[in-house]
C-alpha cells in the first residue's frame, strides 16, 4: 500500500520553506504549522496529490478539505462571498476562521478535495510559516490537521512525526502552535451557520455579523455532528449500478483496471478510474469522472468492482453514497 517514505523534519527557515514549496509542486505531502494546529499540505489543484493525502491520513471517506490561501484576494478566486462572508473575511483573516462558500465558476481546487461538492472551505491562516509557504507556492494548499484519521490534532512537529512519519515527505517544524484548537468553521451558503466551534469564539463572530449564528449541530435530532457530513454528498442524477460485470445498451460505464467488460462496445460513454488499477489515480479521478458520466444521458452508470483496500475503501464508500443518495 503506502510505500514507506523517509520523512524529513526541518526547522522552519528560508531554505526549508523553499524545500516545502518544491515538494508541494511535485505532488508531495508537507506538514506545516498554522496558528491552530499543524496541517498536512498538498497542492489543492492536483487530484493525485490530494488522493495521496487521504491515503496518508487513512481517512475512511473523502471528507472534504480546507483550501488554504495567503490572502482574501486569493480566497476570492476560489469562492463567491456574500455580504456576511465578506464581513467575516475582513474581520478575521488572516486567522483561525474557515468559511464554507459556493465555489467560483473557475475554482481550481480538485473535485476530490471538495468531495465533489459545489462548495469549498477556505481559510487564510496567520502563522508566518504557513503564510510564507502559501505566498511562495501561489496555488491553494489543502490542509487537514496532520494526524492519522481518528487521532487528535497535532500541535507540535513531534506529534506529526508520531502519527505520519514514514507516510509523508516533509515536516516543517515551527514549534508549538499558539491556538491549539482547529479553526472555527462557518458556512455562508444562506443564513450563516456554525459548523465547528474553534479558534474564533462564537460571540466574537456574532458581534461582527450583528446577529446570532445558527448552530448546525442543533438543527434537528438526526442532523449529524461531523461538519463534512452536513452537506449532502455529491450524487449523480443518473442511476448508479455498482459491482457491474457488464454494460447494458444505453448505460455508461465507470471502469477500474484493464479487464474487458462485456457490452462495452454499446456503452453511451466509458471512463476508466485507472487503467493500471492504481487506487490513488482512481480516487483522483472519481468525482470528475462521475460528473462527466452523469452528463452522458445514459440510462444508468454501471460501475465495475473496485478492490476494498487502501483508498478503495473510501472510493467504495463514496460510490455507495452516490448510489443511495438519489
Ligand atoms: O484549523 C484548522 O482548520 C486546521 C488547520 C490545519 O488549518 N485544519 C483542519 O482541517 O482542521 P480538517 O480537515 O482536520 O477539518 C476540516 C473540517 C472537516 O471536518 C471537514 O468535514 C470540514 O472541515 N469541511 C471541509 N470542507 C467542507 C465543506 N465544503 N462543507 C462542510 N464541511 C467541510
Ligand atoms: Mg482534523
Main attributes of the structure:
about 325 residues, globular, binds threonylcarbamoyladenylate, binds magnesium ion, alpha/beta, 9 helices, 11-stranded mixed β-sheet, 4-stranded parallel β-sheet, 15 strands
Description of the molecule:
By secondary structure, the protein is α/β, with parallel strands linked by helices. 29% of the residues lie in helices and 17% in strands. It is built from 9 helices and 15 strands. The chain has helices spanning 14-25, 47-57, 72-78, 83-92, 128-137, 157-164, 202-209, 279-294, 311-324; strands spanning 8-11, 30-33, 38-43, 66-68, 97-102, 119-123, 141-142, 170-173, 184-187, 193-196, 214-215, 240-241, 252-255, 270-272, 301-303. The strands form 2 sheets. The chain has an 11-stranded mixed beta sheet, sandwiched between helices. A 4-stranded parallel beta sheet has the order 12-15-13-14, covered by helices on one side. Helix 7 links the parallel strand 10 (193-196) and strand 11. Helix 8 packs parallel to helix 9. The longest helix is centred in the C-terminal third of the chain and has 16 residues, at 279-294. It starts with 7 loop residues before the first strand and ends with a helix.
What structural class do the secondary elements suggest?
alpha/beta
Largest sheet: 11 strands, mixed
Radius of gyration: 20 Å
Q: Write the H/E string, N to C.
A: EHEEHEHHEEHEHEEEHEEEEHEH
